[in-house]
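Task 17 of the worksheet. Students: predict the tertiary structure of the chain below and write it out as structure tokens. Keep your answer in the requested format; marks are given for formatting as well as content.
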Amino acid sequence: MLGFDPAGGVTSLPVWGTGLVAVLAVVGAVAAWRRSGAGALVAGIAALIVAAVAAGVAVTTGMMLHERVAERRALEQRVADLAARVLVPGSPLACLDGLVATPGEAACEAALFARPETAAAAVSYVAAQVDLFIQAAPRVAGDAAAVRALLPLKRALVADRFGIVAHVLALRAGCSSDFCPPLALFEQPDRLRGHLRERPFDAILARHAAGWRAGGDAEGAPVGAHGG
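Model answer:
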């Protein structure tokens, strides 16, 4: 009688099951009345009411659980779609999801800021990450599976390689080191707050922009905070 969704881990009573409970309660009430008269009928009606309430609660709970599973699957799909952008051949975006201070840090920086187009793509990718996290994080509280699905994204944002996350928060949310409501979504926002104060992205961008101009790319793509 119980329905189990192995993907979402949800067990609930299906609608036909709740209907069966109500029917059995009615049959029991009628049988009790025939055997024992009015007193038993009253007891049967009371049992019927209890069964109906229980059935209603079961249906409502099941609908809420299935809605949560649907939201979780949608979140997982959005995370997967975003991660797929990293897998494009030749894309340096994978650098943004790695650990900071690794031996490949300098190579990643060189790849991400090689041209205005690659720098703009990096900012666009991080902006999409930030948008997804800010939208999803408050809604997944209490849903352990959804929190786990969001964890890799959260870690990447907290690491904030090259200060791009802080750059996006400053542009999109008007954040400063003293005031930035989205930082409340992170347990350890100290690195992000420091980047909002120090603005490392601006320094990195200025350093590489000199090379763009020398290479004739002064008219390249602007580096903003456009989501994608």
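Marker's comment: Confidence is low (pLDDT under 50) at residues 1-12, 217-221. The CA atoms of residues 157 and 165 lie 6 Å apart.
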